Amino acid sequence: VGRGGLAHDLAIVRFNLAASLQELERFEESRTLLVESEQIFRDHADTRNSILCGLGEGLLLQRLKRFREAREVYLLLLASTRDIEKESLASIHQAIGFCSIELGDFGGAEENLTYAVKLFQELKQPIYIVRVELGRGTLFIRRGEPAKGISHLRLVRLDFLRQSMHEEAGICGLEMVEGHLLLEQADQAEILARTIISEFT
Q: Among 38, 101, 33, 102, which residue's Cα sits nearest to residue 65?
């Protein structure tokens, strides 16, 4: 294997190591490896793996609640190449949408989430669509439309439960609880919270 090929192989090892470091909560070390690996993949015209590194870095920053930095990483990914496979493109727009919600950029959030749904529909990936719809329901609540958000999330939550995706259903339910509290519907919020707890146990 030539020196260039060895560097590429090492980048793959580092990329996998970065994921393990996150489980150990060694986040800065993980991010450093992701950034270094992404550059090596770019140097070798390995677009797929460079995008995976970028997505990994963005998700790490989201995990740390550094949403502005995460969104910048995703936007740079979009600007870096037009050769992005549709599934990765949909995931990037979904992530930008989720970050935008946290940053209060509701217009940007809606635009990116809508585009992500369109791409996932073309890919015929219904589970991914439901996950994006969770984001849209959250958007409605954060934007000051709790009744619309609750109505939207009720259907999303049923989809998750039908797929036995209890963690996602629980997250969805917690957003609905927030909506009920905004509407001063404390009794409904408590009933739903107790239901979520019973589902998890």
A: 102
